[in-house]
Amino acid sequence: MHIVVCVKQVPDTKVIKVNPKTNTLDRSSAPAILNPYDAHAVEEAVRLKEQHGGKVTVLSMGPPQAVKAIKKCVEIGADEGVLISDRAFAGADTLATSYALTKAIEKIQKKEPISLVLCGKHAIDGDTGQVGPGIARRMEIPPITNVIKIENVDNKESKVEIRRKIENGYEIIQSQTPCLLTVEKEINEVAYSPMPNMIKAARYEPTVWTVADLDDVDKQQLGMKGSPTIVGKMWPPAKSEGAKLIEGDAKSQVKELVSAVLEKRELFAQKGGK
Asked: Which of 27-36, 146-155, 160-169, 221-230 has the lowest mean pLDDT?
């Protein structure tokens, strides 16, 4: 099996701030990390490799420092990593990103056929979940989203059976391979990396491709030129007002609570009528 995992380096959203002047994410305010969902995708690919044999290649698009995310994937157990990095990719939305990654996958596939493409469910900095299905559409392979378990892989019949999360439970789907899977965090627990993997990752230098290294690229579909969507504005949510503590016995508390709700309701009604 040859599994390609698409990963992204993202700012840690637990600590990132919004610049009050530009209303954009201040990426310098937070450390860059491997997108958590992508880490689970890499872990699952490594487990499949251990069960069925084969190879795991990770692919990312980003600035030169994104090699750190690829090194982290090698630490988890990936065999190789490719970074596509070029100013022409800057400002890409999900449509342009899926186009660029597809072109890179096509080049990887010319060297070695691909059995599966794995992606995280979504990136925590954008939360769209569109890049994976976009790649599948361009490659003309089946996309299966929200995967929580890979039940079975049949390499002889070129089939995979997976369990995917749906609103009221889960469903079992069988697909021909190659196909693309986007995975949930619950698909596995990312294991602690063994020392040999850590040493390999520290020494590893990923392959870096520019636009010139890719074949048959339409530059009008890259970066901002190929991005029909933009983020017009971004701002942190307004802080809520201080809470009021209602005291007394149950009867008096209910009375005061109802009175407060009705007062707010009247206030909203008045504002809505203006």
From this structure: 27-36
∠ at Cα 95 (225, 58), nearest 5°?
A: 115
pLDDT over threshold 80, residue 268 = no
Domain that holds residue 145: 2-221
Assigned domain for 77 exists: yes
